[in-house]
Amino acid sequence: MRVKKISALALVAAAAGLSLTACGSSDGTSAAADTSASTSSNSSASNSATTDGKPSTSGSGSGSKLSSETQNQTQSDTTTSNSLCKTDNLAFTAASSGIKNEIVVNMKNNGANTCSMHGFAGVQLIGPDGLGDTGPDAARTDTKGSTTTIASGEETQFLLHYIPDTSGHGKTYTRLSVTPPNETVSEVVNLNGVSITVSPDSGNSPDVFVDPVGYHTGSGK
Question: Rounded mean pLDDT of 120-145?
């Protein structure tokens, strides 16, 4: 009887072990399934993000926008630095060009930024007695000019031509009133020992002519 009782207990224990094993196997399978599902979900989410391209598109868009803004800023800076030259930022000098009856007028950019000019300067002759002693305005030649860009510290020039008086009754001028292209402010420029003597009354045929800005030195064009 004791042997049978022990055997019965052993059977019960064995049955319990089998039951626990079965339960363990079931739980393990469930956990594995959960892990697999979680991994699959994460992978799917990752793939979805990559496939949708949202992070990539957002980054690319930001980079493109930044690049565009940088380019616009560069263009803005360039526009600002290449603004029209102002009289207040220019230093004027004048002298003989080395050719008979021809004066060269220099305009140096003393401003901090590059500036530009296009066209003809306004020029009026001034006598030794001051601004009240003015002569004729220079007429424009038919020479075609181009835009001249002048970096800070560089200069551009233009030529003034005149027909000297031969009658002996001409008027002599020793200074010029110069107004840069597209400006309204003029600057008085001494001829530094050079004088211009032209007929006091030339009628409809002026005796003084100006070329467009652009005869220059330096790298400015």
Answer: 88
